Amino acid sequence: MPEEKSISSLDQQGQEAFAKGEYELAARLFSDAAAGYTASGEVLKATEMNSNQSVALLRAGHLEEALTMLDRVCGVFEKADDTSRLGIALGNKATVLSALKRWNEAIKFYEEAAIVLERAGEDENRLIVKRQAASLYATRFKFIDALLAVRDGYLGLHNPSLKQRIVKKLLFIGQ
Length: 175
Description:
Elements: H1 2-19, H2 23-39, H3 43-60, H4 63-79, H5 83-99, H6 103-120, H7 123-139, H8 143-155, H9 162-171
Helix pairs in contact: 1-2, 2-3, 3-4, 3-5, 4-5, 5-6, 5-7, 6-7, 7-8, 8-9
């Protein structure tokens, strides 16, 4: 049990470092936590730490390393049929691809993330990735695709906030 506490403390320290903008430190702490969880046989928890590490690497500017890690992370979550974490990881992968200026691939992964997040019942996260896809469509001058992506994201909300209901209404004017 003390080992578990020390591993979770690495995770917590990683979260704190990330919140302070110390991304290199956060990546190292998440990596150490992942190693600890792997040693204790907690593969999914270790993979979650690697997912966190990939976001820290992205923020630190280590894009290729983040992308490689996310390929592995997505594979583990897919094999475990963990749709919620897989959807988030696919969205993170799309963000890395966007940072690498690989926009068409990024859009593809945002759309794939949206499908997986819909299966997971993650409406809010699905809306986030659909809005990210819409932003990329717009930068590629695909305005109809951008509008449809946003519309689709709001359409998938089951319990929208007041603001989201208003936006949803505006998007469906004329229907």
